[in-house]
Design brief:
The protein is α/β, with parallel strands linked by helices. It folds into 3 domains: about 1-140 and about 265-320, FAD/NAD(P)-binding domain (3-Layer(bba) Sandwich); about 155-260, FAD/NAD(P)-binding domain (3-Layer(bba) Sandwich), CATH 3.50.50; about 335-445, FAD/NAD-linked reductase, C-terminal dimerisation domain (Enolase-like, domain 1, 2-Layer Sandwich), CATH 3.30.390. Helices cover about 30% and strands about 25% of the residues. The chain has helices at about 10-20, 40-45, 45-65, 80-105, 175-190, 205-215, 305-320, 400-410, 430-445, and strands at about 1-5, 25-30, 105-110, 115, 120-125, 125-130, 130-135, 140, 155, 170-175, 190-195, 220-225, 225-235, 235-245, 245-250, 255-260, 260-265, 270, 295, 335, 340-345, 355-360, 375-380, 390-395. It has a 5-stranded parallel β-sheet. The protein has a 5-stranded parallel β-sheet with strand order 9-16-10-11-12, covered by helices on one side. Strands 20-21-24-23-22 form a 5-stranded antiparallel β-sheet, sandwiched between helices. Helix 1 (about 10-20) links the parallel strand 1 and strand 2 (about 25-30). Helix 1 packs parallel to helix 7, helix 3 (about 45-65) crosses helix 4 and helix 3 (about 45-65) packs across helix 5. It is globular. The N and C termini lie far apart (about 65 Å). GO terms for molecular function: dihydrolipoyl dehydrogenase (NADH) activity; flavin adenine dinucleotide binding. InterPro entries: Class-I_Pyr_Nuc-Dis_Oxidored, FAD/NAD-bd_sf, FAD/NAD-binding_dom, FAD/NAD-linked_Rdtase_dimer_sf, Pyr_nuc-diS_OxRdtase, Pyr_OxRdtase_I_AS. This is FAD-dependent pyridine nucleotide-disulphide oxidoreductase.
Length: about 450
Amino acid sequence: MIVVLGGGPAGRIASIRLASAGKKVTLVEPKGKEQGIGGQCLHFGCMPVCALNDAARIAATTRRFYKRGMIDTLPAFRFGKLMDETYVVQQKISGILDDETRQAGVDVVYGKAGRVDGRQVFIGDEPVDCEAAIIATGSRPNIPAIPGVSLPGVYTPHTLWSLRELPKKIAIIGGSVMAAEFAYIFSEFGSEVTVLARSGFLKNLDRHLRAVAMKELSGVNIQEETEVAGIAGTDLTTGVRYRAAGTERAISADAVLLAAGLVPNSGMVTGIDKGPDGAIIVNDRMQTSVPGIYACGDVAGAPFLTPVARHEGIVAADNILGKERHMDYSRIPQAIYLAHELAFCGSSGEGSASIALPGPAGPGTYWSVQYGDTGLAKLFADPATGEIEGICAAGPSGGTVAAYLAFLMQREISVHEFEDFIEVHPSTDGIYGLAKYASEIFRKRDSS
């Protein structure tokens, strides 16, 4: 038997792969069946954020139509109902995942906490003998040590879904993707949003892509290089005190969202090597320091991305099955979901050339032309070989574009191979056009 701890993307996919190969697999999910499997992605992260982002984009679009006289009235979202309906869809998806997992031959055990001590695996308090085990217990929100952090009205991405009234003013503590996505959502719903970033806001983002993000978040008060001194209030949250540019400042807020990242959820694991943040240390086969024990997904540390967790689960499962497989982190596409999908993969190498242009008008951006925010297409390539080294794609299909380009970059595709590319039209993908243009420039340079 193989025991898998955690029913999120990493554990579930690993379980299915193992069971499909004929192994007896027990998947242990500490949450009850009423919540179901699916992990952080389904219950607290990707999926519910998608739900709220869809609604936020509808709100933004209808306001533009209203201002241009194309509709007569503006709809008002019932925030509590929106949160309730999000939960209904989550439950349906969780049921589908449960059926799919069981039909693959996996035995799913709900409501029991798994634990690992060296090579010994426990389900609840019962030790079990197993051929191998996979730890896929995910991550949890990072909660900074801030005075007042336990006040009612302070939320994490795990507790936010209990909110039933739209805050008039919300402070978001954090400066990365999570903070940006929630800032966009609440600002489009009509909340007054302040973001308090400890250092730079979206500081690791390509400068052109960051400029798009800042434009799409133009209604948000973004404060960088801040130190949060405390959350104000007695019985309820009333605001946040912070320091910036050497001065003490305060803002009022009836809700505070802690969006300060994630930490590996590895407290139930002992006798196995971990990093300073609790991440279980693994090699590129997802093997831990203890033979027969594997770890994958968020519990093994950054980048905390669902597709990476899934792939790590496949790598762990294949190595248990005796199929040597290694995890490659070199070309991982990522996206930030604001008004557009702000996606990116790779980066510029030494001596590389870059080309950037506004995204083309197409489905989802036609009515953005008048506002100059049709997105962005940017490409990095090696002038000598034409090899594509990185891309940025902001638009309605930016994430899809980045995913396919990441796959092609892994195979060292060059811009010259796009000369025979025929696109679908209309499309909001500008990368293929940049590739053709870069190919023409590089060939002219080489022939001169």
